[in-house]
Design goal:
Oligomer: single chain
Helix content: 25-40%
Strand content: 25-35%
Largest sheet: 6 strands, mixed
Shape: globular
Radius of gyration: 17 Å
CATH superfamily: P-loop containing nucleotide triphosphate hydrolases
Structural class: alpha/beta
CATH topology: Rossmann fold
Strand order of the largest sheet: 6-7-8-3-9-10
CATH class: Alpha Beta
CATH architecture: 3-Layer(aba) Sandwich
């Protein structure tokens, strides 16, 4: 579904990513792992059109996307759940979900009922302001808002950060359900090793802006992965 080839990215004079290659397949979770500051979030921002990349190629379902803006990437089928969630605190839960309508045709602008099956807490809170929700509830809202866009690729940046254990389990079950439907490719950036290790079908480890390991789950031992992500 998603293929990244030779992607480089700069912030000013500093090159952050050095020739990144990555493949994310439909019906699989690709976990991008590494210590703080290795370029994981920068990679997701480049894919989502949130930060321009310097060189390289991003292909979605065989189509070269070029250098898209965030709005164009969303319309192409790339949904991004950023670190820190970025929900609108003064909008209600329902209004936050409807923000996802912006990249949809008018006839498709509705909140799918299945979202409330994935996130039942949101049904009872539709009229509450986003800022009144707990951190875990806001994270569920941010993922649901991304799914409103009917994505082909879902990018998740640190979905467990600052979340209570019970909701981490709920989010893990949602990711499993989305993966098992086999309709979208999921790219997961995650520092919580056990969470990512339990979910991922494919691992990509980054160090200093470069890929140090890219292997399917069956071909990498836990100890080797731990070593690769701690470099």
């Amino acid at each position: 579904m998603l293929e990244i080839q030779g992607l480089t990215l700069r912030y000013g004079q500093s090159r952050i990513l050095h020739g990144i290659d990555l493949v994310a397949r439909r019906g699989e979770v690709t976990a991008v792992m590494g210590t703080n500051g290795v370029g994981k979030t920068s990679l997701l921002k480049a894919i989502a059109g949130r930060h321009p990349f310097e060189n390289g190629r991003i292909t979605l379902n065989g189509r070269d996307l070029g250098h898209l803006t965030a709005a164009q990437a969303a319309r192409a089928g790339i949904a991004y759940v950023p670190q820190g969630r970025e929900i609108f605190p003064l909008l209600t839960v329902q209004e936050n979900l409807e923000v996802g309508f912006a990249c949809l045709a008018r006839g498709a602008r509705e909140v799918p009922g299945e979202l409330y099956e994935l996130f039942p807490i949101l049904r009872s809170m539709k009229d509450r302001r986003g800022g009144d929700l707990s951190g875990g509830q806001q994270q569920q809202l941010a993922i649901a808002r991304a799914l409103v866009t009917r994505p082909r690729v879902l990018l998740l940046d640190e979905p467990t950060e600052g979340i209570q254990p019970s909701i981490i389990k709920d989010i893990g079950r949602v990711i499993e359900a989305l993966r098992d439907r086999g309709e979208i490719a999921i790219v997961l950036v995650e520092q919580y090793f056990d969470f990512a290790h339990a979910l991922a079908d494919h691992f990509v480890a980054l160090s200093r802006g470069e890929v140090t390991l890219a292997l399917p789950r069956a071909e990498v031992a836990r100890e080797r992965l731990l070593e690769a992500v701690s470099i």
